[in-house]
Amino acid sequence: MQAAHHPLVSIVLPTCNRLQFLRPAIESLFAQTFTDWELVIADDGSDAPTRRYLRALDSLARVQMIWLPHCGRPAVVRNAALHRARGSFIAFMDSDDLWMPTKLQCQIELLRARPRCGWSYTGFCQIDGHGATLAEEATRRWVAHEGSIFEPLITGGVSIRTPSVLASRPLILRAGGFDETLSSAEDYDLWLRLALESEIAIVDEPLVLVRRHDENHSRVWQSAFTGRDHALRKLQDRVDLARRSLLRKERVNNALTLALTHALLGESAAALRALGRSAHYSWSYPHWWLRGAKTLLRAYLPQRPS
């Protein structure tokens, strides 16, 4: 059922099963102190119990449901919800994460005070499947970046989690939404394009709880590297020479990390293929030759026991 007015914020939520996490995720949305929002849920072919729960939500005035055949591609599912969204701002949520009650209110107030910024994000904390804070949070490095973040975003210096982002809908439409050709890193790809279009503001508080568990969306791990390379490569014709050089160098580093990961997993042939595929844009970088040689030695020579 559609709401009677156009809300200020549309919350985009893709989902597929994981009902034990979906319920508290949606409860955290309804607990927001800011209330001028609609929830657009795109269901990617969930099972019967999840559909029953979602049909009950569909009767609520502020909830819109989109029923999709299963595709397993988050970019496709999120875009389906984006096309239905009517709010001036878009907030992204994942079906297994949680928002703190003041999350939307803090971001809306911040963006109203920072008109040059078309989008914002917040800090986050990582929790396990039971809601307990992960031990690694005690030592995780966090650097708050805001303003023009394109360069540090390229090099991995900015930590943005999808449920922490709130962006103006015109900005997202201008950037083109999610790239549906990607099966992974589709969020990073969009953040890069948003960063080209607008400065960003940060609420430097952990207002999002990102859940890590055994049922996280499963992908072939290499697809994250493939998606990141695609995101970096396709922007090269849209930026100046300095940024183009930075994008290319980061593609080299991405390929080297992919090859090394294969080597560490004992996948020697895959490590060699990763280096070979990157040679045409990497051969002029001395560190590609040095690190590539070390990777191949690790991959093909027996390692001494520690």
Tag the structure with descriptive keywords:
306 residues, alpha/beta, Spore Coat Polysaccharide Biosynthesis Protein SpsA, Chain A, 2 domains, eight-stranded mixed beta sheet, 11 helices, 8 strands, 44% helix
Give a verbal description of the structure.
It is a single chain. By secondary structure, the protein is an alpha/beta fold. It has 2 domains: 9-211, Spore Coat Polysaccharide Biosynthesis Protein SpsA, Chain A; 239-300. The protein has helices at residues 19-30, 48-58, 74-84, 103-113, 150-154, 169-175, 186-197, 222-234, 241-264, 268-282, 286-300, and strands at residues 9-15, 37-44, 63-68, 89-92, 98-99, 117-127, 166-168, 199-211. Helix 2 links the parallel strand 2 (37-44) and strand 3 (63-68). It is globular and about 60 Å long. The relative contact order is 0.12.
Fold blueprint:
Elements: E1 9-15, H1 19-30, E2 37-44, H2 48-58, E3 63-68, H3 74-84, E4 89-92, E5 98-99, H4 103-113, E6 117-127, H5 150-154, E7 166-168, H6 169-175, H7 186-197, E8 199-211, H8 222-234, H9 241-264, H10 268-282, H11 286-300
Parallel strand pairs: 1-2, 1-4, 2-3, 6-8
Antiparallel strand pairs: 4-7, 5-8, 6-7
The top level CATH class name of the largest domain: Alpha Beta
Structural class: alpha/beta
Element-level helix/strand string: EHEHEHEEHEHEHHEHHHH
CATH topology of the largest domain: Spore Coat Polysaccharide Biosynthesis Protein SpsA, Chain A
